[in-house]
Design brief:
By secondary structure, the protein is of the alpha/beta class. It contains 22 helices and 16 strands. It has 4 domains: 124 residues, Response regulator (Rossmann fold, 3-Layer(aba) Sandwich), CATH 3.40.50.2300; 158 residues, Rossmann fold (3-Layer(aba) Sandwich); 77 residues, Helicase, Ruva Protein, domain 3 (Orthogonal Bundle); 70 residues, Arc Repressor Mutant, subunit A (Orthogonal Bundle), CATH 1.10.10. The chain is elongated. Bound molecules: adenosine-5'-triphosphate and magnesium ion.
Length: 506
Amino acid sequence: MSDPNTKTPTILVIDDDAEIRYSLSRVLSSRQYAVIEAPSGEQGIALVKKGPAPDLVFLDVRMGGMSGIEALQHIRSANPKQLVVLMTAFGTAQTAIEAMKYGAFDYVMKPFDPAKVLALAENALKAHADMRAVSDYKPTINADDYREGIVGSSAVMQDVFKVIGQVTASDVTVMITGESGTGKELVARSIWKHSHRSAKPFIAVNCAAIPDNLIESELFGHEKGSFTGATGQRLGKFELCDGGSIFLDEIGDMALATQTKILRVLQQGEIQRVGGTDTIRVDVRIIAATNKDLEQMVKAKTFREDLYYRLNVVRIKMPPLRERDDDIPQIVDFCLQTLVKQKKSRVSKVSPEAMAVLVRHNWPGNVRELENVIYRSAVIAQGDAILVKDLPVEIRGAVESSAPAPALPAAVPVAEAAPEIPPPVAVPVPPTVPPAAAVAAAPALTLAAALDAAFAELAAADEPILPRLEREFIARALAAEGGDETKAAKRLGLTKAALQKRAKDA
Ligand SMILES: Nc1ncnc2c1ncn2[C@@H]1O[C@H](COP(=O)(O)OP(=O)(O)OP(=O)(O)O)[C@@H](O)[C@H]1O
Ligand SMILES: [Mg+2]
């Protein structure tokens, strides 16, 4: 098993088919992995439990005795961090879904493509190493941050927090500007929470989401019969919010007629219901927000200048996330810990590489986009940490394209012969019958049967048999040895020079 001195990764292959164990071990050993084998789920589990745990497990789905899915569950409950790749000849949706549901790292189809198996092992072992690297992860937030619900240690955010503190003692109108998703509503709530109004309501109204003909009724209420559909008296948000704070979001989208009425609330502290004549006094603090350029709108006369000055007494400008990279680790931690507290996830860490990718990203959707990415990645992550591979492809895209591609030709070792060869022994038919093609692909072949089938196929072709066979075997030997010509030649019983010559002539 893994030897801390040499650091040779140990891979456990669990399969009841000796030929599969043999050929998979050959492929994996070609890359300096220490391979151990177990002929059943039970024996595999015992090896994992006994420890030291292997770095990776290849586990067959369909075995006599305990099934691979069952073994996967036992292995993962004994060691939740154990990475397991399931192997199957039957590519059904059900098995693939089950495999991932029970925490498999990946899923591979038989017959194997050695290059793919090696690339997969490499990815899995990289994930394993990444997981180990995050074991001493220290979250950057503390209990106060949870109470506040808003984090950020960048200088610009510290300034925002100071202004919030300055405006909480008075009823001054605050205008919050900034791109979508930068935290405008969060700041509005924070102002209200710290003010003397916190025992009374905070009501957010999205002015862009309510049609012009309904917004006045929404804000100021209406009397019975004041318009078609007004079947009874209704209180508006201002009345409901009495004593509290109203958050007028997207105020740049408010119709001019409504703007006039908002001005009246600000100047006189009173409203009139739609269709009513009574003047009603309200005590409401207004906090407004927009991502539009109100100065430009004032110039274009689409926003009232007097209202603009009334609203804009204190301005809080929310900086876009790309201008405060320092805050990203904290926001990431905050999102993760919140998910953990809500029992939506058990992922509480991020690998240094994944964090670097997150910090580097441009975040056009700001904190909302980052929150969304963290949620998606936490759902996908297998251990207790988000790794680069768990990030959505649009976020890690640039990183992936620079990763080295596995440098192996695609070829199949002889024991895992071509899919069209029928198996000589009856394949046990599961309760959900897989398609005929999948049954035919089952690699339950003896060498003699594989040679018979290969001979029959080659004999039917126009090309002479031996040169073709030689070409195929040289390719397979090279693949099995990870492209190492010396080792491939030795395995074929040739000198390296002879192998090179034959490969060239083929
Ligand atoms: N500094 C922060 N710390 C923690 N969470 C934040 C922070 N800023 C924003 N968020 C979170 O990001 C999300 C978006 O924030 P919010 O709704 O306040 O943005 P907004 O500026 O009002 O966006 P929009 O213009 O799209 O309405 C929310 O879930 C909020 O909790
Ligand atoms: Mg908002």
